Amino acid sequence: MTKPLMFGAMLLLPSPLPAQTAQPPAPPATAGDGVVVTARPLATDREVREQIVGVTGHPRSDMPLMRFREPVCIGTAGLPVAAGEAILRRMMETVRSLNMPIAADGCRPNILVLFADDPQEQLLGLRTRSPEIFGDLSRAAVGRIVKGAGPVYAWNAAVRVSRDGDQLFQTDTWPQMKLGAASRLLTPIRQDIAASVIVIQRKALLNKTLGQIADYAVMRGMAATKPVEGMTSATILTLFDKDGGTAPAELTAFDRGVLNGIYASPPHAQATQQVATMERAVREQGGTR
Questions:
Q1: Residue range 145-172, pLDDT digits in tens
Q2: For the segment 58-85, what is each residue's pLDDT rounded down to a tens digit?
Q3: If exposure means fewest CB atoms within 10 Å of the residue's CB, which of 179, 181, 273, 285 is most exposed?
Q4: What are the residues whose beta carbons fall under 8 Å from the beta carbon of 224, sequence distance 6 or more?
Q5: SS3 of 215, please?
């Protein structure tokens, strides 16, 4: 699924992808004037839990959350090469902090961060011309993405496999999967992210630093997260909020706790267990009071 999805995604922009490198991360450059910071008070433990559930899409308790298992390969397009490479390096630094392997140079991207003048118009056209860009998402899910208010359009395409990595196989009657035994906390399946796509409208980058953009993209790309209203925890997911509020200069304790918790949990753990692990990770990062 990854190959046709990424081919479709590249139809969004003519710009070349910066090659993935293993160079040390550079200090974040800026894409506008200054850095917007926040002094938001810490949330309570209960608020943190509710917000974790919110940004992860109110997951089913008996299903694991999506995460990568394969080495991560990041590509960017639509910005000057130097800016794209700065974003790429910063994202790779975060991926390494999660103890996830980085794919070798020349890899096929499984996280794409794209910038376009009118992404919604292009996505609406691609929904008809190249639906493979959306992977196995349902028609309803694709509709919600392309008709979103913007300026960011993001999605994660996942593959359900057994906890040992076995995929569905076709029989004479129905597709089947070899499953191991389940337990109270562990499911017999996992949801592996095959590809993530983040498309951002260029004019929305005004007064955002490249570090902020990279941190937002890695938060959307490494996990199936999304911005929600009424956050009391500071989070980079508010970077493109239209209410004009302040946004963090980088990943916050809440953000790092969410990512660390997902990648510290067994990939076939139930969502309730993963949420509990994220709660502890946010607390360890100093994100609660």
A1: 988 888 999 999 888 777 665 554 444 4
A2: 888 778 899 999 999 999 999 999 999 9
A3: 181
A4: 56, 57, 65, 66, 156, 158, 193
A5: helix
